[in-house]
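Journal club prep — side note

Before the paper discussion, L.F. wants everyone to see what a predicted structure for a comparable chain looks like in C-alpha cell form. Sequence:
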Amino acid sequence: MATARMEHSLSVLERVNDPGALRSLPDGELAVLAAEIRRFLVEKVCATGGHLGPNLGAVELTLALHRVFDSPDDALVFDIGHQAYVHKLLTGRRNRFDSLRQQGGLSGYPSRRESVHDLVENSHASTALSYADGLARARQLAGEQERAVVAVIGDGALTGGMAWEALNNLGGAPDRPVIVVVNDNGRSYAPTTGALAEHLRLLRYGGGAEACRNFFTDLGFAYFGPVDGHHTAEVEGVLRRARALKRPVVVHVMTVKGKGHAPAEADPADCLHAVGVVDQATGRPVGEPSAPSWTSEFGRALVEVAADRPEVVAVTAAMLLPTGLGLMKERFPERVFDVGIAEQHAVTSAAGLAMGGFHPLVAVYATFLNRAFDQVLMDVALHRLPVTFVLDRAGITGPDGPSHHGMWDLALLSMVPGLRLAAPRDTAQLRRLLTEAVSWGEGPTALRLPKAAAGAGIGALARMDGMDILHRSKGRPLDVLLVPVGPLARAALEAAGVLDAEHGIGVTVADPRWVFPVNEGLVSLAARHRLVVSMEDGVRTGGAGTALAGRCREQGVTTPVQVLGLPHAFLPHGPRPGLLAEAGLDAAGLVRTVLASLDHRHPAPAAPGHLLGGTQ
C-alpha cells in the first residue's frame, strides 16, 4: 500500500525511467508527460545552456517513437542530435541533466558512452539516412529484418547533399525497410531554403497528400503525411502503419520549434535554438552583459568592408546568424546567399561567383569546412580563385564536444597550394586581415576566429616583414621565440613576462598574422634564437608549427622548434579555457614547455652561422 501511494505521488516523468515504462503508460497520461517534459527541459536547459528550441518541438514525436519501436533492438538514429534531449530523458538519464554540457557531465548530443540507446554521436548534419541505409543492409545480410531501422531528420538537414544521396539508395531498394521520419518545422537555425523547402510546404498544406504523387513517392518511398507532430496518438498510429509495410517509408511530421515555451515560439530569429544560461521567463541571457564575441565583431567588420567593395558577397550554409552574417543580410540582402546545409555546394558555388568577377566570402564553422575539403582544394585552389573562407568557432569550442571542436582546419588547409590563412589576435587585426584577404586576387584566403569573447586589443612593438613583434626582452640574449597563432598571443605575452622576470630568459613574441604560407622573415627570426615554441589550438601534427619547423629545415635553420597544439584525439566537451590548459596552451603550460626544453648550458648564438643543432 505504501509503495502504491509513493508511485501515485511521483510525477509521470519520474515514473518513466525507461522506454518499457513509457510503453506501459496509459494513453491518458501522455499529454501530462509531454507537459512535464517541456517544463523539465526549460528549467534544466535555461540553467546550463544547450539546444532548447529543437527539443521542445520534438517531445510528442519522441514519445511516439519510443512507444512504437523497442530501442535499442530497433535502431533510432537522430540526425545532428539537437533534438535528442527527450530521447535521453526517456532512456534513463533524467538525473544527469544538471550536468548537461558541463565538463565530465551529460553530453549535449547522443553519446555512445552514455547509453546503448545512442547509436550516432556525430552531430554533423544530413548523415542519419546513410547510417540507416548501412544498418538496414547489415540487418538484411544477418537475417534480422524484423529489427526496425528509423532515421529522424529535420527538413533543414534534408537539404544536405548527403541526405539526397541516401534517399536515392534507400528509395531504390524496396526490400530494405527503413522508416524516414521527416521532422518538418520549416527551419534549421533559420527558415529552410530551396526547392525542397517549397515542396514540403506544398505537402504540408496540400491536405490528403499521402495519396498523391510527390518527390518521395517518385523516389520509391511510401509516404504518410502530413502528420500533426504534437499529437502523440496520431504519430504513433502512423508509425505503426509505416512499420507494417516492410518497405522504405517517409513519415512527414509537422512540428513547431520551441513548442510550449512562449519566448522560444516568439523568437523570429532561431526559436532559442541554442542558448547559454538564460532567464526561463524571457529567454534573455542572465548576468552582466558579456563582451562582444568574435563572431559579432566579424559581422560588423564585414559590413564595413562590403560598403567599400561592391564585389564582396557572402555565402552561408544555413548558418546566417551563427556565423555573423546577420548585419550583412540587413544591409546588403541581395549580396548574401544561404544555400541550406550544403557545405560542398556552398564552396563550389562560391567558386562560380569568383569566376564571375565577384569576391565571395564563405562563412562556415571550422568543423564543417572538413566536409568541403575537396571543393576547397579542387574547385577553388586549383583554379586560383579569390574566395575567402571565414572559419567561425575555430579551435576549442567548449560545451558542444568532439564533433564541434574546430581542430582540423590548420592541418587540412596547410596542404592546399596557394591558400593564405590568417589568424587575428584581436579585433583590430581582424578588420585589417579581412581587408587584406578580400584584396587578394591570386587565390583563396582564410581567416580563423575562436568561439569566445573578443578581449582587449594587443598592440605591437614593431612590424617586421608583415609580422608583428609583440614582445622583446630588454637587455637579454635571444633565448626563446614564441610564435602564437591568433588569440593565443595573450597567453604567449603572459608567459613571456614570467620567463623574463622570474627566470631571466630573453623572449621574443612574434605574431605571424598570416600563418600560411610560412613567412620567410619568421624563419630568419627563428635562426637568431636558441629555441622556437609555436602554439596553436589545432591538432599538433600538420598545422602551423609543423609548417614552420619544416620550412626551417628546408632553409638550413637548425634552431629546435617545439610544437604545441591539441592532441591527436577527439576531445570531450568542457570550457574552452580548461581544455586549452589541459593541452598546455595557456601561459602556465607555455612556461613549463620552455623551461623543460631550453638548455641553459649553451649560450645564445652570436650569428646564424653559429646555431645550435636540433630537430623538431
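L.F.'s comment for the group: The chain has a mean pLDDT of 91. Keep this in mind when we get to the figures.
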